[in-house]
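Incident log, structure service

09:12 report received: a user says their structure output differs between two submissions of the same chain.
09:20 pulled the input from the user's history:
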Amino acid sequence: MQVRQALLITSAWIAGVTWLFTTPAIGQIYDSLDAYPPRWHLQSSDCEARVTSQGHLADGGVNGGACENVTLLSGNGSEVLLVYPIEPVQPLDDLTATVSVMSAKKGARIGLRVRYPYLIDPDTSRPVSVVVYGASYQSPSEFASIGVGAIERPLRLKSVAVRTEYGSKADLQDAYVDGVVVNAYSGAGRSALRIDNLRVNGLIPISEGIATGNRPEEKSILSMRPGKQNEITPTVLLANAFEAGNITRILQHNGEPLAWIRSLGFDAVLLSKPPDAEILSEAIRSRILIYAPPPTSPNPEIQALLEPIAAWYVGTNTALDSRQVDDTTRTIQRLKKWPSRWQRPIIGAPSESWRDYASLLNAIIDDLPHRVRGLNADEELAQMKQRRQKLGDRIPVAVGIDSMPPLTMLRQVEAIAEAIGAPEPQRFHWHAMWLQAMRSLEVTPTAILFRSSRSLTSGALLDEQRAMALSYVNRMIAMISPWVISATRMTPPRLAGANYHCTRLKTNQADLLIATSNAHRGSEVLAGDGKTLDILLTPADAAKTAWRLTHFSAERVTPELTPLGARLRIVSPDATEILVLSSDPAMGGHASLSSQRFARQAALDRWQLATNLVEQSVRHWQTATAARAANRQSVSNLVAVAQQTLAEAEPMFRSGDIDSTLRMACRADAWAMRSEWQLAEALMPDWPMQVSCPPVDMGASEIQTIWRPLMDERGWGRNLLTSGNLDTQDLIGSERWTFGKRLTTSAQSELLHITRGAYEGPGALRARVTSLSDEALPGGYEGTVVQIQSPSVRVSAGRAIRIDAKVRTLGFGGPHQGLLMYDSIGGQPMGVLIRGQADWATVRLYRHATEETEVHVMFELIGGGEATIDEVELRVWEPAAIPPTPVTRPISDTYPGTPRRQ
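09:34 re-ran on a clean worker, output below:
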């Protein structure tokens, strides 16, 4: 008997432990809703409701605490759905949610949003969802707690209604709850709702695999075969790769929290690997779309979480050039054979063969060239327009923009800083990224992808600056996107005064003018350069009303009449100026509403960016003068003016005067940009020679200050590239100079060794490219025909290198064409583009070897033209070669003839 009792106790104990470790953990959410950013968002309404203000009240919550406050303007209807997104969880009776609300009117109701991931609404192209409601608010003007729970039975009734609406074959499997809902409708007119203390209990993620009435108990890959999909109603696929009616802003993901990415103004992320259940659940909770490489095969474990995937991205870590067309075709054919639940649009970023890829992909990303290459606005836009002409209107086109310096440049600058004991790089020229993004709007892209190779949450000051800059740029794009998405490009007005480029986009009701600064040097930018910007209007435009949206407010600008029409004068223009012209006086109200939504965060971002730049500029000048890298007489007083501007704006910033804060921050930013421009000139004596120097190109003035001795001639060793004089005819061959060519069907190329016209010595190299048709060759990688590579030189890690070459060019009249000179350390992104150089000129590259490597010097001919190359040299920094400076010997006790001191 005792043995039997012991066995029973042991069995019970084992069963209890088994149940404990096999039962999924039940989660809980508690949010006091007392801190930025706002958590609730307006999902939909049937009364044309809109949020007029949303924020937090410091002492307006329960028991005098903080709470979230939403002010709405509604018409006649019955629903204004505010949603708090949560991780997808099982729709069980144990799932409960409560929240405290207060309003002047009763009627608000709480509910849970249930989504059917396989049933797509043909109107919205999104999965269908229903709301299971709970209690309603019945205590006007005081806080009351309302809750919802026991949703399984009401959900079954909702499912019957859904089948009635969408048909008996509607696929309602794997339904899940992904949001807490408050129906805030309490009547027509203006209303305010305070929300506090949200609690959600009984959260069981759907990945736990609990079988419910809406989820099958067994699932296998065999049930997902295309042949069996006829048993289930196929889903309605997303029609577009990018969200309609909006310029989708995408960030290349590097492990950042998706909710934080959403707070920066992004709509989507591009992953570097196929998505898993964790990132998909986080995307649903954060309302972020996902673009990702497709997995090798469909994974049934994540099938119910595919809703946030907007498109599959092909070509990760691969250049989609003419050689990859066949491989891409096979990949896309494989994806099209997948089950309908896994079907998504397919996008990619080809570098050439645009028409071939346009027939394969559903959307294309056009990556713009690196800003350090120094292309002006007309060249960038001309290249984008050429590609649009090839594609026509067959396919949506997005734009790809680098959100950081080239990775090879960043690694070199960090290695230089570590080697010489300088501070790590803290900034980059973010204004150039801003201008590139605003200019790209001229071709009305459907999306903008901000390329990034490093996490914004790395903790480095550089990445903190990048995050603020991206947040500011996103707000400006979102502010004007209602005009851009439906606009047609028109001839822009003429400009006078400051050097700017103007874009004009016309809609049915208004004309949008985007003026961007053309004063640049590489990736450095000036705003206005101390001049006013005059926009010359025609007599037809002179009768229209103009509003300036640069500072996120609809500031009316009065035109000055001229004999030829009118003139809009902008004093102290920012690097980007936004104006709206319209004959409708009500357009000012629409512009004001569009800008006010983003004004607060934009003001905070720009204020912090300007403050950081001014402080860094002060520190950079102090370091440069202390190290005697810059003359004390050349110290600019622009920094003092910028400091004074910020000091005067401090009360405005603290009082919440957004318009004045932005205006003063932009002015201080312009002074600081000019100050940094002058400091770069003092630290780079090689200018106006075409030079690539990593610290200068990146804006790391403190590092360049300590690296400044390398700009002198003393200290450099002998030329290690012995065949760089190019004097002999047999220089082309194995382990010597090599010559490669491509595009042989569309261009003729040749490489000659010339004996007349060399810079020095008996010979030089001349390369020539000619188009075989009447159509001119394109620019960029697509037009690269010839590559010339030098013999290798082994360089040890941590050594500084200087590469010099004498070049001259002829031709290369198209955009992004010329002779590109670069090396194997910096790569093509850090190359120098030479064109329009009829006389001999010196091109210089400074590099830092981050590891022991073989260094090559490369030249590429882009487009049709001719280039002559001579006297290529590669030297290593050898400070021991600098003659010692005589030092005055101090008086010593042991000096002969001097009495010894006691």
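09:41 both user submissions now match this output. Likely a transient worker issue. Closing.
09:42 reviewer note: Confidence is low (pLDDT under 50) at residues 7-25, 210-238, 887-902. The radius of gyration is 32 Å.
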